[in-house]
Amino acid sequence: MAEIGRLTRAVAPRPWMMPVMLLRVVIVLAVLLIWQFLSASGWFYRGVVPSLPTIAGALAKLLSGGDLYWNLWVTIDEIAIGLAIGGLSGLVAGLVIGGNKFIAAAFEPYLYYLGPTPKIIFFPVMIMWFGVGAGSKIAMGAVSCFFPIALNVAAGMRQIDQVLIRVGTSFRANPWQMATKIYLPAMRPAVINGLRLGLGVALIGTLLAETKLSNRGIGAMVMQAYAAFDMPRMYAILIVLFALAIGVNALVARFGGLDAIERK
Amino acid sequence: MSAVALTARRWLPPFVGFGSLVLALAVVEGLIRLGAINRFIVPLPSEVIASFARVIVEEDILHRFLLTAWECLASGILLTVFGVAIGALFHRLRLLRLACETWVAAMASAPLVLAYPLFLVLFGRSALTIIMLAFLSGLPPVILKTIEGLSATRRVLINVGRSFNLTPAQQFYKILLPSALPTIFVGIRLGLIFALINVVGVEFLINFGGLGQLINELAERYDLPAMYAAICFVIFVSVVFFVTTERAERWLRSAG
After folding, report:
1. What's chain B look like in SS3?
2. pLDDT tens-digit profile of B38-82?
3. B249 and B162 fall within a common domain
4. Structural domain that includes position A132
5. Which of A137, B27, B142, B220 could form an S-S bond across to B191 if both were Cys, CB 3.0 to 4.6 Å?
6. pLDDT tens across A181-195, in order?
7. CB-based contact B17 A106, cutoff 8 Å
């Protein structure tokens, strides 16, 4: 029955979609028209609001050159290593805190209240500890993503249905089997959500660190465009950056099964 | 269980947590004094504690704190006014909501703060750049939570309003808004937290304004103990802000 419902939902036409799509197109066109008008109005300093063809040209030039991909690779590399370090330590901390009430009562408040502090203020400390190169950017990514991942894993660990744990115990599952067959599958939504949040803040932490002190990476590219007052290029880099960030966030949510979980 | 045992059980975990923190600082102090950690990279914790008074007196921290607080307040007012208004508009016009809600959610996941060089060009190296960035970064949760709160208003309350022949404006101010207020406040609280993070972050990055600029200046002066003290002060301010808004949210929820 559920299958039929799903199929019907997938095939059935959705009459409300048509006006929605139409409205979206109208809004996008209106925004583009307003932008073009502002660009030609002369109300801003010359070049601050470039015309749409100029931005499109800069975007095409950016995407066709090798500069973007090399810097993008540097940034992805830093974010990936930061996420791996911060994610793994967050996972371990979350498992320890989530699995022990005493440790949770002793240390979780520190994680909970340190989580929403602005992490970029730790950048001077990271520079002192890990140098001006990639190390300090990786550390910023790791510090940024540690808190949401640890807190989500701890919350996920506490939300595991006790029945599942008792089933595992009654089947005499060993610790490895308990972890892989019971704990991790039951915690998947919380872990994926933590990873999604962690990825977002790791990306911001790493890129902000690059804008502050670096000569490579996407953050440094933005600052180079700013220093040269190359506004079309800056807009083009920001468009690519936002598209990538939003896309990666949606991909993690979809492939992590968050969409399906939220719909249930 | 006796009262003493209950009290011990209640206070032991926080005591262990705080004790561990003090112990970790003592270990770091010892390692630095032994030369195992370079004191030109990590200052002595005792020096950091001693420099608090210097930072408060010499660096005019009250003035800086007020500047940061003013920027947060300005962005908070902006994101409350615009966020609630846009959310209410989306709730009223269903088609507009269906068309734009996904975009607002996407905006929430976009790293808007990275556009700060663009804002520097548009608004100059001023408080306006910081306020506008904080406002835009905190806007999506306010819009989304306003829609959520207004949409969750109980049907019976709306029907009561209709039976009293309330005008749409009266329906909004007397029924919808009071009912949605706790949820809207959750959004405002999230927005304010994002705003504070962005205000301090951008102050640090563009070396302008209050507490964020102080950390940057102290780092550039290579005054490590004072820099660590300033970082601790910012963490303290963030935690106080977080706890206060959390308490306010709980109070509002229980009152609602």
Report:
1. CCHHHHHHHHHHHHHHHHHHHHHHHHHHHHHHHHCCCCCCCCCCHHHHHHHHHHHHHHCCHHHHHHHHHHHHHHHHHHHHHHHHHHHHHHHHCHHHHHHHHHHHHHHHHCCHHHHHHHHHHHHCCCHHHHHHHHHHHHHHHHHHHHHHHHHCCCHHHHHHHHHCCCCHHHHHHHHHHHHHHHHHHHHHHHHHHHHHHHHHHHHHHHCCCCHHHHHHHHHHCCCHHHHHHHHHHHHHHHHHHHHHHHHHHHHHHHHC
2. 988 999 999 999 999 888 888 888 899 999 999 999 999 999 999
3. yes
4. 66-263
5. B142
6. 888 888 888 888 888
7. yes
